[in-house]
Amino acid sequence: MIESIPHFPLGNFPTPVERLSNLERALGFKSLWIKRDDLSGPLGGGNKVRKLEYMFAAASQVNFKKRLFTIGPTGSNHVRATTVYGKTSGFNVECLLFKQHPTEYSETNYRVICEHAAQVHEVKHMHTMFIRYGYEQMKTVLGIGEERYFITAGGSSPLGSVGYVKAVLELKAQIEEGLLPEPRFIFVPVGTCGTIAGLIVGVRLAGLRTQIVGVRVADWIVANSSSISRMVRRILRLIGAVDANEINPRRIELWHDDFGKGYAIPTEAGMRAVAMMAEHEGIRLENTYTGKTLAGLVHYIKAQECEGEHILFWNTYGTI
């Protein structure tokens, strides 16, 4: 069923897997690996490229005027990727942003968004953004204004998450080729829940014994086990799986302790993790998503006393 879902080629796949030998020794781990989705696309990497391949395909089928509408914070990886890849793919991208805590990383994303978007709207708060998003959808349903294809925050829809179901099948092929051992754990940031939900479904379909561990990087009201389980069920129904109602939120592993004071507000542990990855492996992370995720990985593994297991860090950084 997955192979029959249309997609719009954007990325460079498969993305590499590498052993983090230097960081592994520094942390006292036995087997630490990275999935380089920061290298996922020619116009910038990150986890959004896999999702956009499916949503752009759907937009091309139903939206003859080729106008996209999406939302996110001012430093959003998703909005950046949508505007950059959308513009080069022939779409006009309209976006609605709420202001986030400013960092060098988020300000760079914001400049790129403004450069590539056809139209940018801004509000002060996240809840205002969602109210406005609903209003814009209603206008389109009523036929007011130009026809638009709506892409949810983070690209986190069942259709977009299919990209990460396929990503696990890609990973399984790399395991079978001997490029890495089957991980005991995969660590991934959890914001709008689409990436982790796709990985959970992918692990199930691939028959891997891997535990997906999500590190929460967004407010609990958005990033929680119930939201993840609902997304998992919707993905399973989309792809025609028979066990779509068998997901128990209590079995979803979600690490909360490295969220800090709020979305996009750096933590000391996250900043140390960013520095360690740069120092030992020469790989860039950032403080909103991937730095907190690596910090969460370290804290979780040490708390569980699993330093001897095979561990995979899935790098979702949206490099520019």
Give an account of the 3D structure.
The chain has 320 residues and is α/β, with parallel strands linked by helices. It folds into two domains: 203 residues, Rossmann fold; 108 residues, Rossmann fold. It has ten helices and ten strands. The strands form two sheets. Strands 1-2-10-7-8-9 form a six-stranded mixed beta sheet, with helices on both faces. Strands 5-4-3-6 form a four-stranded parallel beta sheet, with helices on both faces. The model has no long low-confidence stretch (mean pLDDT 94).
Please give the radius of gyration in angstroms.
Answer: 19 Å
Structural class: alpha/beta
Strand order of the largest sheet: 1-2-10-7-8-9
Q: Strand fraction band?
A: 15-25%
- In the CATH classification, which architecture of the largest domain applies? 3-Layer(aba) Sandwich
Spans of at least 5 consecutive residues whose pLDDT stays below 50 are: none
Q: How many domains make up the coordinates?
A: 2
What integer is the average pLDDT? 94
N-to-C SSE string, H for helix and E for strand = EHEHEHEHEHEHEHEHEHHE
Shape: globular
Q: Please bin the fraction of helical residues.
A: 40-55%
Gap from first CA to last CA: 33 Å
Biggest β-sheet description: 6 strands, mixed
Per CATH, what is the topology of the largest domain?
Rossmann fold
Total DSSP E strands: 10
